[in-house]
Specification:
Layout lengths: L7 E10 L19 E9 L4 E4 L5 H7 L2 E2 L3 H7 L9 E3 L5 H4 L9 E5 H7 L7 H4 L4 H12 L3 E4 L3 E4 L2 E5 L8 E7 L2 E7 L5 H5 L10 H15 L5 E3 L4 H5 L11 E3 L2
Length: 261
């Protein structure tokens, strides 16, 4: 049996916002406290292939949404030796504004997206502010334009992109949310994105309040445990503890990026 080529995987922090813990759990939190949120994009690199996972948002979106913008996500990629203008493949976990902005900074990329996410982002649910408020219409339209340019690869459920990387449809948070499973020197690692914003959402089984299907969100936690084989290898999508638990790959990236595997 041929050994799988392992990925090095990095989380790049590009923005943050102060929040209360009650804002991060469906039904609130009786033990109210500060619970800030970090915003990440991710990069996975093996000897033969580099993948970028999500593209973040820009300063204008930060101003509109009242987020603290730390740096352009492409700056973190550059410090890791990746030029966004040359990136060939970008996985979009879902189409909320903080995961699909900056599309113009990846002019050569093929975008990898679930069928159901595009249908959701362009369908009848977007007439309801509860569902649409986390989307930016210009970004959705831009992705539709990329479809017509042949720059979007669609998946209907789980898909193996290569023996060492696969996509898994989870849903719950949005209809087409997908997580990314990667083979690393630590074994299988799962980038949860918004399938679990914080480790506590999954470990305490308390859903995040932006959700279209609570049961599907909770079932997704069990699916990810099966995919990763170890809960320590499931990386939450917005948890500031990620920056504390993992090391910076080198000193210049302290506070900017950490190496997950």
């Amino acid at each position: 049996m041929t050994a799988l080529e392992p990925f090095e995987v990095f989380a790049i922090r590009y923005a943050r916002v102060d929040r209360k813990s009650s804002e991060n759990f469906l039904g609130g939190d009786p033990h109210e406290s500060g619970m800030p949120m970090d915003y990440f994009v991710w990069m996975a690199r093996s000897e033969s292939k580099t993948w970028v996972i999500d593209t973040g948002f820009n300063q204008a979106a930060a101003n509109k949404r009242k987020r603290e913008f730390l740096r352009c996500p492409t700056e973190g990629l550059r410090l890791l030796g990746v030029d966004a203008a040359e990136v060939e493949d970008v996985i979009i976990t879902h189409m909320h504004y903080d995961h699909v902005g900056n599309f113009d900074l990846f002019p050569r990329a093929q975008f990898h997206l679930q069928d159901s996410e595009m249908a959701y982002a362009t369908g009848r649910h977007m007439a309801t502010p509860f569902f649409s408020h986390a989307f930016e219409v210009d970004e959705v339209v831009a992705m539709v334009r990329n479809v017509y340019k042949g720059r979007v690869s669609f998946y209907d459920g789980d898909a193996e992109l290569a023996p060492n990387i696969s996509l898994h449809h989870i849903g719950g948070h949005t209809k087409g949310l997908q997580v990314v499973r990667l083979w690393t020197r630590k074994g299988w690692l799962v980038l949860a994105s918004d399938a679990s914003h914080y480790a506590a959402n999954m470990s305490q089984r308390r859903p995040f309040p932006i959700v279209i299907d609570v049961a599907q969100m909770m079932d997704g936690w069990d699916r990810m445990l099966g995919l990763a084989e170890d809960s320590a290898n499931i990386i939450p999508g917005h948890d500031p503890e990620v920056m504390e638990l993992y090391p910076a790959p080198f000193s210049e990236l302290e506070g900017i990026a950490v190496q997950l595997a």
